[in-house]
Amino acid sequence: MWFLKLIGISLLLLISSPSFSEGSLDSLFESVRIPKGKFWMGSPRKEQGRYKDEKRHRVYITKPYFMLKTEVTQFQWVKIMGFNPSYFQERSDCPHNHQIIDGVHLCPKMPVENIKWIKIQDFLHKLNILSKRQYRLPTEAEWEYAARAGNDMTFIHSNSHYNLKEYAWFDDNTDNKPKDVATKRPNNFGLYDMSGNVWEWVQDWYDDRYFNRGPIRNPQGPRNGKVKVLRGGSWYSPSFILRVAHRGYSAINDTPSYQQGFRLVYDTEP
């Protein structure tokens, strides 16, 4: 009986979904290939602004994967879901490129926000029915590895917040709202907004001692928990929150925040 119910749900999603020609859906999501490799996850003890849950440890990413160049935008979300949960979606929020699609207001290039972790799962379910790929949230280790892009520095570009404004939207250079994606410089992997703009949900449950005992190869996070990890900081964050090692967290069904968005990854192999 449960199998028939799942088939019925899938058919309903397909019937109610926008019409996409073969391959056109995936063209909405531009990605970068992230090579396998090893890195130091967390922060050294003397790093300014460091928290105790950032124990520095060696991690190996043993398979390449693809990560979206940007955080998922309002346009991408609306194309899949047909509605816009974002707090910042009115013409006054983006007067230069505001759109209305089937009655839905959106700032198409701004990251979708005001998203619960649990609602991202609905988006993924619908997206993966329509897509040739199997998208998912990154693990916390995949996120930090991609953010560091081969460096071992405090911020994505250096050990100082000097010139951070060239790479990130944060409390020093925003007018209290997120900005269009990919309007700052990318990191060395070609990923935009890995620091600032909106916090990015990842797949892992949060555990403040997981870095002390987690596996060193492709860690997936704790098996259970009460809150999920958020990474990267937001348009509202002070610069020290934008340190690559900084870890945020929130409950999966908590009141959504206009500082929280996400980006996706997919694997090169099934």
Characterization of the model:
By secondary structure, the protein is α+β, with helices and mostly antiparallel strands. The protein has a single domain (25-71, 116-267), classed as Alpha-Beta Complex (paralog of FGE (formylglycine-generating enzyme)). The chain has 5 helices and 12 strands. It has helices at 2-16, 74-81, 117-130, 140-148, 210-213, and strands at residues 31-34, 37-41, 57-61, 65-68, 99-101, 104-106, 135-136, 199-205, 228-231, 247-250, 260-262, 265-267. The strands form 4 sheets. A 4-stranded antiparallel β-sheet has the order 1-4-12-7. Strands 10-9-8-11 form a 4-stranded mixed β-sheet, covered by helices on one side. The protein has a two-stranded antiparallel ribbon with strand order 2-3. A hairpin with a 2-residue loop joins strand 5 (99-101) and strand 6 (104-106). The radius of gyration is 18 Å and the shape is globular.
